[in-house]
UniProtKB/TrEMBL annotation:
Pathway: Metabolic intermediate biosynthesis; chorismate biosynthesis; chorismate from D-erythrose 4-phosphate and phosphoenolpyruvate: step 5/7. CDD domains: SK. GO terms for molecular function: kinase activity. Keywords: Amino-acid biosynthesis, Aromatic amino acid biosynthesis, ATP-binding, Cytoplasm, Kinase, Magnesium, Metal-binding, Nucleotide-binding, Transferase. SUPFAM superfamilies: P-loop containing nucleoside triphosphate hydrolases (SSF52540). HAMAP family: Shikimate_kinase (MF_00109). It is found in: Cytoplasm. It holds the Pfam family SKI. This is Shikimate kinase. Monomer. The gene is aroK. The lineage of its organism: Bacteria, Bacillati, Bacillota, Bacilli, Bacillales. Catalyzes the specific phosphorylation of the 3-hydroxyl group of shikimic acid using ATP as a cosubstrate. Its EC number is 2.7.1.71.
Length: 172
């Protein structure tokens, strides 16, 4: 099995769905954000604060390339696809799945203190700025191999749809 890469905007469920999907497929899950945090010995928030977003993007790109391209589920961060070479790498090495969620649903999922604190961009941007980021990134996510609309679905149902779409394509 080629690695499955989950992409989509912050709050679409990449981390939660990836955990569940990896259990169902009986392969290990790798969260790119957690990989970066482990590699650098700092939280994402600390990296943004101490070294800036560009340094984080470099670590994120390296982490994607250091994870297995077989028998794994990789959960990316929402900004990973902005570097064109990252989505090209993921599509060449595995199957890229876009968890598509509308902006109001994302915003409501991200409004708790806990979710905001994990994501430095949310701490320094207005709703309008985050909405613009969402609009700007959508065309990058659309390059994925498969798309699942998550607005009305639980994480389990998102997994069901992913598995169904993979089996229809004879991938899993
Ligand atoms: N399908 C869903 N329905 C409801 N809440 C969800 C769903 N997917 C994720 N969430 C919630 O949204 C928040 C962000 O989820 P997370 O998996 O961290 O997203 P991401 O990794 O894409 O940023 C978490 O509180 C999570 O429980
Ligand atoms: O969209 C982004 O630029 C980011 C998304 C985050 O991951 P999630 O998409 O898992 O929240 C994390 O990589 C970082 O805070 C930056
Ligand atoms: Mg995540």
């Amino acid at each position: 099995m080629n690695t499955i890469y989950l992409v989509g905007f912050m709050g679409c469920g990449k981390t939660s769905v990836g955990r569940e999907l990896s259990k169902r497929l009986e392969v290990p899950p790798y969260d790119v954000d957690s990989t970066v945090e482990k590699d650098r010995g700092q939280t994402i928030r600390e990296i943004f604060k101490n070294e800036g977003e560009e340094a984080f993007r470099n670590y994120e790109s390296l982490a994607i390339r250091q994870l297995p391209v077989q028998h794994a589920v990789v959960m990316t961060g929402g900004g990973a696809v902005v570097r064109e070479e990252n989505i090209t790498y993921m599509k060449n090495n595995g199957i890229v799945i876009y968890l598509k969620t509308s902006f109001p649903v994302l915003w409501s999922r991200l409004m708790t203190e806990e979710e905001r604190n994990k994501r430095p961009i949310l701490l320094t941007s207005t709703r309008e700025e985050v909405q613009k980021l969402f609009n700007d990134r959508s065309s990058h996510y659309e390059k994925s191999d498969i798309e699942v609309i998550t607005d009305q679905l639980t994480t389990e149902e998102v997994c069901d749809q992913i598995l169904e779409k993979l089996s229809r394509l004879n991938i899993q």
